[in-house]
Amino acid sequence: MAQHTEGTLTAFDGITIFHQAWLPDSDPIAVVMLIHGLGEHSGRYAHVADALTDAGIAVHALDHRGHGKSDGKRTFVKSYDEFMKDLVQFRAHVEAQHPGLPLILLGHSMGGNLAVGHTLDHQAGITGLALSGAALQVGSDLSPGKLKMFRLIAKVAPSFRPEGLSAKAISRDPAVVSAYQNDPLVFTGKISAGLGAALIGAIERFPARYGELTLPILVMHGTDDQLASVKGSRALEAAAVNADVNAHYYEGLYHEIFNEPEQDRVLADLVSWIRSVVQ
Q1: Which residue among 36, 64, 108, 255 is the active-site one?
Q2: What's the confidence (pLDDT) of residue 157?
Q3: CA pair distance 105, 115, nearest whole angstrom
């Protein structure tokens, strides 16, 4: 039975950031820093943590500012840098808890985007980068004209909320969708333009820097993901020419591959990759 702990950190601007950890009974072989997606929270990954702790891997996760049990206006940031500063601080906390252990970053969706952003600027000391349905490409529905309008809205009214996410697109399992829709810690409303613009800006900057990545990378993506285009993961796989990229594209799976009926296979692939990287 994994040991579960909770705590808080005070961010650079005074925001209180909630975090939690799942620790194996024996000495861990590695530590995973788990970075959740847009609108959700770290508590939705308890089953992922169970699979990892069963394999002797410690897991630490935070709730992003404006998400879950953390403070802040819901799904809002003034800039991408706010997320980046929070991750630097949280990583320091995680590393202090497990000095010398191999560190794996695991990011889902927006969390995958943030994990890439952090790794590009702070690659030293990271043993491996694992990405699940990472948000690495702007949707095809956002034409250049729409992007221009979106940036203008974000500049003059960053708190404006133009659109939200479709809960039915997260998983083919109706029970997962229902739990998501009824989870009081999940934000199911529309996303702020400020946060959207921050992510879009990062997505546009990333491709030119993929060649800087030199660590092992695990890319995991469902081919029927309607929330984060699989093309973004394929582009990273192709452009990260100096990294050891291991890619799994799961045919027919939706956005939350850890919450699909095939989740056991996906989690087994994750555990197997972490073991191979650590060993």
Answers
A1: 255
A2: 53
A3: 7
